[in-house]
Amino acid sequence: MQRLAARPRTFRSTALVVASAMFMQQLDSTVLTVALPTMARDLGVAAPTLSLALTSYLVALALFIPASGTLADRFGSRIVFCLSIAIFLIGSIACAMAFNLPSLVAARFLQGIGGAMMVPVGRLVVLRSVDRTEIIQALSWLVMPALIGPILGPPLGGMIVTWLEWRWIFYINLPIGLAGIVFALILVPNVHGVRTRFDWIGFVLSGAAFACILFGLELASRSGTGSAALALLAGGSLLAAAYLVHARHTDSPILDPALLRTKNFRLSVIAGSLARITQGAQPFLLPLMFQLGFGYSAAVTGTLTVSVAIGGLAMKVLAPRILRRWGFRRSLIVSGLVGTAGYALCSAFRPDWPIPLIIGVLLAAGFFTSFQFTAYNAIAYADIDDKRMSSATSFYATFQQLSMSVGICLAATTLELAPRVAGRTTLSLDDFSLAFLIVACISGCAIIWNRGFTAEAGQELSGEPSANSSSYEEIGVMKNSVQTRR
To answer: Partner of 419 at 20 to 30 A CA spacing, among 25, 53, 240, 265?
Structure first.
């Protein structure tokens, strides 16, 4: 039997506790990107090669996120949430003790296992704690503290690299994570959902497919590994096809393709995945371009890249008002155009550009891109009922991380192949420009799918139900009535 906790009077305390985990994760990732050149020198590898450390974390997310919803339903969201933070902290300690690239990659993978359950389970707790009319507001509260991580991360990373040692990047997670566990035990409800049989076959097939595809893309950026990359990509495609066949013949697949029959969810997954390719590539490309291409220090790089996060934070206050006034469809189309243009303009950055102009471009790009993700995250669950919520959050978060992984792989592949094609052995600013243009063009394709939303899509989320549609309660009664008759 499904066991759902009663909705609390306020979701803010729960959202803030969950956001502390997101804060830790975002702080860790943004601090890390600024430190990549220094870490590369210390570990004796080329800076673009460290994309493997970023990818391994995202691969772990893609592998284990599908299991997060089922585990939360079976053991309770509070238990799984606290356990995931503990695993993340153990992985952080391992990262700080890494002595070469393979050990760092393995430690980042362990970190990713914790992160895979931490964020989607936390989001699930919040979504189950609010009415549909409060979803936009709840998500804004949820991501507000998490956005502070990207704001503090770049300058903090620059200071750590300049004055301390890069290993402290991972040690700073310990006090944040321990505090998160304590407050989660006090404030987060231990919500159970429908206990279903765990889909072990689907877990293995989907995980192996994602791992083969992502590591195949990663190997494509390495010289002399073309055959292995093609083999992995082909094997991953076959495994993905096998999973789709399996999912059609099981009652509770770990990633349920049937969710894509819901129009708003389907459009949000496709368009959001395309848009997040740039989100994955941008934190990788910008710090490398500023430090290796412009010759800026880590401290200056951190100060510049924080502009993206500040733009995103400013947007969170305005997002609910904009969506209520202009609607999801129009807002997503406009923000998609402006956000894509902003990141495409990054390809034109050069050392002689005025720093205030660079900051202005990054602020605008961060503002409109973050707005897109807020809208996608909200409208994705507009038509998802409580019984399918855990499955939907796992599905959505999996493809969110996959698209970011693809963005990093595309950027790393471009930086690896472009100099070779040009007959050079070192990176140039033109290589970074090409990488920015490639990922921006792919993300820009999301606008095509944004047009698929109806003008009335998402009106229920703002408390203004469409005149042409029934309320959710009425729809639920109608469904129950039909099932009774059958």
So the answer is: 53
